[in-house]
Amino acid sequence: MNPQPHDAPVPNPLPSAHRPPSRRSRWLGTLLMLAVVALLGGGAWYLVQRSTAPAGAMRGAGGPGGPGAPAGPGGPGGPGGPGFGGGGRAMVTVGEATARQASLPVVIDALGTVTPVTTVTLRPQVSGVLTQVLFTEGQMVKKGQVLAQIDPRPYEQALMQAQGTRQRDEAQLDNARITLERYRTLLSQDSIARQDVDTQAALVKQLQGTVMTDLAQEKTARLNLDYTRVTSPATGRIGLRTVDAGNYVSAGEATGIATITQMTPIDVQFSVPQDRVTDVQASQQGAQPLAVTAFDRTRTTEVGKGQFSTLDNLVDTTTGTVKAKARFENANGALFPNQFVNVQLLLREVPAVVVPVTAVRTGANGDFVYVINEDRTVSLRKVKRGQATVGLMAITEGLKAGERVVTEGGDRLKDGATVQLQGARGPASAASGAAGAPPRRARASGPRGEGEARGFGPRGEGRGPEGERRQRPPQEGAQPGAQPGASAPQTP
């Protein structure tokens, strides 16, 4: 085996596919990556500049083939004419309503609680064993109706005893009277002393008092016997009973047997703000009583109509309100004791211009509405609102009857914008339909930038850099060979 010389090249043990990249290859990869990053950054910058272009640049529309194409700020064409939808944006579809003259009710809205006219607890007036319960829980009862029975036998015996005592004392009184008459005869014959006559007369008066006491005791016994029949003290609806038959009940028990609540008529108690008390009192001077309407908790369903009754005689210092009461017939039983209701007190009706509540908006400078003009543009109009009722708002200043206002879609509007009414074709859509093609897009370029027009004014006009007005030709009359988006020539 021959040894190799020391200056012979050493073979590379690694294959060519696994050799480390050369310095030139690394530089090429780095440059390629930087180029990709630069392209992405440039594209992003272009998109940002295009999306944040001034509104005037978006509204400008250069006439194809005409001199001095209009452009937005920064372009040689200057700001263009006004376009539909407020500068190139699509027109907003809005709902509308017409302001009208109407009699608007002046009302006071309040929270109320249903209060029974009469609420009584059915209590026994004598003690004894409850032998019968003669009512069904929840039924309507009438005043004087027998509802329960207490064992009457002890009270029957007491009545008989009182009657016997009275009869005994009456007999003694009769005997004393006869004796007194005899004594008076003897006294006239001077056969008896006057003292004996006076003593007998005093005995007669004593027995008369005893008989009167006996009569009172007899009436008491008879009344107690009547009290064993427990009757209804009022007409109304009886509640759940608290004691069953067979139990011993005592006179004046706090719980009683049951509770009776009058249902018809029924009252509603609510509070009136103290600054409206004078208005309520003035309205009460009319010939007709004030009408009151009660609604349910959601204020969507009417549960009854009634009449205003009275105001309290003092102001609640904790709430600054005065308690008031209204009475309802409640023939259908819709109002239930202690029920929570929304109350609307009608004071009077006044003529006013009214619009839907959704038409009135509030901004930094106060309330306003968008008025729809004849050319379907909108004007921001400041107004003063008045009394509000169900779905309607009174306008006291700033609007006349017959004017149309925006009710839906106003959040995307501004003063002077062109709108599309619900259920109607806008002017841009009508023009596109007549021409058979969508509106054109024109580009205008200049030394300081470029502006892209996405809409044109009602007359298709733009303003050039020298302040002169130029007419944009309609789409149907475009010159042959002119392409949408082509750059317009500059005017010296």
Topology (SSEs and partners):
Blueprint: H1 23-51, H2 55-59, H3 84-87, E1 92-98, E2 100-116, E3 119-122, E4 128-133, E5 140-141, E6 146-150, H4 153-188, H5 194-227, E7 229-231, E8 236-238, E9 248-249, E10 258-261, E11 266-273, H6 277-283, E12 291-295, E13 302-311, E14 321-328, E15 340-356, E16 361-363, E17 366-372, E18 378-382, E19 384-389, E20 392-397, E21 404-408, E22 419-421, H7 427-435, E23 442-446, E24 449-453, E25 461-463, E26 469-471
Parallel strand pairs: 1-22
Antiparallel strand pairs: 1-21, 2-11, 2-15, 3-10, 4-6, 4-9, 5-8, 6-7, 8-10, 11-14, 12-13, 12-15, 13-14, 15-20, 16-17, 17-18, 19-20, 23-24, 25-26
Helix pairs in contact: 4-5
Describe it for me?
- With 492 residues, the chain is an alpha+beta fold.
- The chain has 4 domains: 55-90 and 429-471, no CATH class; 92-104 and 352-421, conserved putative lor/sdh protein from methanococcus maripaludis s2 fold (Beta Barrel); 108-116 and 261-350, Efflux pump adaptor protein, beta barrel domain (Elongation Factor Tu (Ef-tu), domain 3), CATH 2.40.30; 122-258, OB fold (Dihydrolipoamide Acetyltransferase, E2P), CATH 2.40.50.100.
- Helix content is 25%, strand content 31%.
- The chain contains 7 helices and 26 strands.
- A 6-stranded antiparallel β-barrel has the order 2-11-14-13-12-15.
- A hairpin with a 5-residue loop joins strand 25 and strand 26 (469-471).
- Helix 4 runs antiparallel to helix 5.
- The longest helix has 36 residues, at 153-188.
- The chain is elongated, with a radius of gyration of 51 Å.
- It starts with 22 loop residues before the first helix and ends in a 21-residue tail after the last strand.
- The model is unreliable at 1-8, 13-18, 53-88 and 426-492 (pLDDT under 50).
